[in-house]
Structure formats: C-alpha cells, structure tokens
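Thread: PRP complex, take 2
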Amino acid sequence: MSQPNMNTLKVAMPKGRIYKQASKLFREAGLPIPSDFDDTRKLVIELPEMDMEFIMAKPVDVPTYVEYGVADIGIVGKDVLMEENKDVFELLDLGIAKCRMSVIGLPDWAPSIHPRVATKYPNVASQYFREQGQQVEVIKLNGSIELAPLIGLADRIVDMVETGQTLRENGLVEMETIFGITSRLIANRVSYRMKNAKIQNLCDLLHAAITVQRG
Ligand code: PRP
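Output below.
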C-alpha cells in the first residue's frame, strides 16, 4: 500500500448514517470510492488513486479533527457545527442528510415553574431559550433523548427530527423548529490556503454533482 504524501488530502468522514449519503455524493462527483468501504471497520482508509485519505470519525468529532488540522477537510452536520462552534471554514452545503433541530414535548405540555430541557445539544438549546427570553435548566444526555419527557426527567427536549418516526412512536410532538440541518463540507484554515487548488477542485466537483441532483 502506498504511503500518503504531504499533499494527500485528509478527509474526516462521519461514520454512520451520513457516510452512505456522503460516499454516494462523492461517487456522483466522479470520485471512485470502492463500494466495500461502506461497511468497513477500518478507521484510516487510503485512496491513492484520488490522492486522498479518509479518517472515519464519530460525527461529533469531525470539527475537532479539522480544527486541529489532522484532517484538512471534513463532512459534518450543521447540528454538530452549531453545537461545537469550532474554528473551521464552512465551504459548501452538501444538501445531504436533511433533517431539522426542534423543540419537542408531550401534546399536553404546559409551562412549568422550573422548566427542564434535555438534549444532546446543550449549547444550541441554551442559546435558543436565552434568545426566547425563557429561563430553563438544560440537561445533557447522550442519546434516546425522547425518553426524557416520557419518564419525567424534562418537560421538553431539543433534538433532531428526520422522518418524525421516533416522535410518532413515542407520542411526542414538535413544538418549534429551531433550524434546518444538512451536511456541510468544512476545511481547516491553514489547509485551505496550503492545499487550496485541491480543495477548490473537490468543491467544484461536489457542487456540480449537487446541482445535477437538484435538477
Ligand atoms: C436521532 C435523533 C432522534 C432520531 C430522529 O437519534 O436524536 O432520536 O434520530 O430520527 P427520526 O425523526 O427519523 O425518527 P439517533 O438515531 O441518532 O440515536 P440516539 O437516540 O442514540 O441519539
């Protein structure tokens, strides 16, 4: 296997649900990612024919790898970008993994004296309720957020809604949409200057593929 050189573009790819859509978009952009990579457990994947290296990261960590420059660019959801607030360039809206960030509760929700909001996104939730002029206690959870109003930990949650199936199956309703989410291409500030031609070329290819997709 060939060693990546200094100019190899290191790409932090989010493992899981975004990866399949991102690799599909790369292929549509003419970048030949072998299909057997979609299910690999390998964490660093060399793609010598594209002069790229994929770093398979937990989605929430993608901005960290890019900010520190161990990845030149990365693909990450707008939800993670808003929550993590890292010093990276946002280059392109890839239009994939569409969903939204919402305030969710039980249908009979009523304001309480000590409102509590559970979420995986404490910074997003705190900022939203501050802007609304509402004082709430934000409780950080790491998953299955919809449990919180069902078992009385919190009266509302701030979470991602994609198909709405989790809400429907648990008898919850969307009360407000905070912002729409899609995946974005981000870049390290130094890499963006040092590997500009390469990054710009990738942006152009992806942009063309997105434009074709949108018809
Ligand atoms: C996410 C999110 C919701 C669900 C929304 O959870 O936190 O629970 O997906 O998707 P839906 O609208 O299509 O039902 P995820 O599957 O990432 O797992 P988690 O609960 O462990 O965060």
